[in-house]
Structures are given as C-alpha cells and as structure tokens.
Design a protein that fits this description.
alpha+beta; two-stranded antiparallel sheet
Length: 135
C-alpha cells in the first residue's frame, strides 16, 4: 500500500494523546517502523546527551519514491486507508496512525531520512523541515 492521508473521520476515531516524550519513545517508534519494514537487522545510535543524535539504521524494504513526500506528514500512513481497516490490522503492524515521524520532526525542528528500495542503485537522503516538507 502507498502512503496516503487518512480521512478526517478515521483521524478523529484513532486520535491519540500519545506523544514522543523522551529519547526512548523516539527510538521505540523508529524501531517499530523498521520492524514493520521487515527489517532483519536494526542498529541504534544515540549521542551521550540523547539530543544531538538519534539514529536508527535498518535493512528494511525502504520507502518507495512515490511515498517520500508524505513520510513526515501527520496522519499519512501506508498501514490503513480508513476506519474499517482498524478491524483487520490486528498484530500485522506495530504502528499505523502516521504520527511517529511527524512528531519527531516537529520536536526536533527537522530530520534526515535515508532510504533505498530494491532496484535503486544508491540510497536517497531526504531532508525534512519542521513542517514535514521534504526538501
């Protein structure tokens, strides 16, 4: 499934007060994303002060070029398309609301996502501003 914005009815139904409150919650969300991408190898690097660097590297399937502009937009996800999908998602995904990267970029003021899919010769580094726009 490609990444798309959720309908407003679905957003209201799954609305959450969950927030990224510390470095551990950021790492957890990034590792969840890596596991959802079918990663078999995940490494985490965190700076001593837990502020300067939080980096998660994995060997998952990567983010398709068509999906890249929406990776840090709130309520944009590839896991569900509408409220009915909530009944069937079960344990198939660790995250599905489209909030982890959006929250991380808002809190940090910007981040870099490096991704490569099968068939791409080299990885692409995407710089994302605080508003979630990929530059």
């Amino acid at each position: 499934m490609t990444i798309a914005a959720l309908p407003s009815q679905t957003v209201r139904a799954i609305g959450s007060t969950q927030a990224l409150t510390d470095a551990a919650s950021v790492v957890k969300e990034f590792v969840d994303n890596a596991l959802d991408a079918q990663s078999t190898s995940i490494t985490v690097e965190i700076s001593t002060n837990t502020l300067d660097i939080i980096q998660v590297k994995d060997n998952g399937h990567g983010i398709a070029p068509i999906d890249r502009p929406l990776i840090c937009k709130r309520y944009c996800t590839s896991k569900i398309k509408d409220l009915d999908d909530l009944a069937t998602i079960g344990g198939a995904s660790l995250g599905f609301r489209g909030e982890a990267l959006a929250s991380a970029v808002e809190l940090s003021g910007g981040l870099t996502v490096t991704t490569r899919t099968v068939g791409e010769a080299t990885a692409v580094s995407l710089k994302v501003g605080q508003n979630g726009e990929v530059t």
